[in-house]
Amino acid sequence: MSSLDALNVKIFADGADIDGILKLSKNPLIKGFTTNPTLIRKVGVTDYEAFARKIIEAVPSYPVSFEVFADDFDEMIAQGRAIATWGENVNVKVPVTDTKGNFAGKVIETLSNEGVVLNVTAIMTPQQVAEIASVLNPDVAAIISVFAGRVADTGIDPMPLMRECKDALKGHPKAELLWASPRELLNIFHADEVGCQIITVTHDVLAKLSLVGKDLDEYSRETVQMFYKDATAAAFTININALA
Question: Do the bridges between strand 10-14 and strand 64-67 make them parallel or antiparallel, or are there none, so unpaired?
């Protein structure tokens, strides 16, 4: 495993906690931010646009992704056009399909041809990436977010799949492959090994960055200390005299 300084993959922080976003914006390892309607709802937001504009104002020099949430393709296009006006650093997130599984090619092609920088999301297969590539304007920047973590949740190794996804984007030099939904910090190094340009990482996983390169013997000792401290604090006992 290489050091963090040797990584080529860009780390985007994934979340909707504004205080956390501001804090992470001061970390030179963080190159951008992503969020989604589910994360935004979890923090109690009711005014989506006002919240988005607040984040854009807070981190104006970082790319930030905000997602359409319509299920009709024409409405997705209208929402995408509106979101694109919120700031020059905004990437418009659009799902690869609607809720019925219909490919959102019309949305992707229309917005991409209008020069909108898209973040196509919720992708799971190389075939979907190939479909996206067939309608994506090669002269316009785009992010292709493949949910490698969710793929791994199904018992499939995402590494070969992500390599196939990267191959499917040949001919689109301005399209960046993003490793989405990582489950552990090690996935940052996996994404780098595969050749992904971006990985989006939740704030809780990013909190483990300080562990990279840690001495494992020392880590072992600290873990034993933790067990001992907690057992002592709980006043646990074992009756060793029962064996006499």
Answer: unpaired
- Residue located via tokens 């905004």: 90
Sequence-ordered list of residues with C-beta below 8 angstroms from that of 104, at least 6 positions apart, any chain: 73, 76, 94, 95, 96, 97, 98, 120
Does the CA dihedral 208-90-7-153 come out positive or negative? positive
Question: Which class is 4-212 in CATH?
Answer: alpha beta
CB 218 within 8 A of CB 197: no
- Low-confidence residues in the chain, pLDDT < 50: 1
- The answer to whether the CB of 94 falls within 8 A of the CB of 107 is yes
Other Cβ atoms less than 10 A from the Cβ of 46: the count is 8
**C-alpha gyration radius of the chain:** 21
Q: What is the DSSP letter of 243?
A: G
Q: Cα separation of 217 and 229, whole Å?
A: 18
Q: Per the residue annotation, which of 26, 93, 100, 174 is the catalytic one?
A: 93
Q: What's the whole-model pTM score?
A: 0.93
Domain assignments of the chain as residue spans, ordered by start: 4-212
d(CA 175, CA 170): 9
Residue pLDDT, tens place only, 59-103: 999 999 999 999 999 999 999 999 999 999 999 999 999 999 999
Local structure of residue 10 (DSSP, 8 states)? E
Report phi then psi at 119, rounded to 5: -125, 95
Give yes or no: 42 in active site.
no
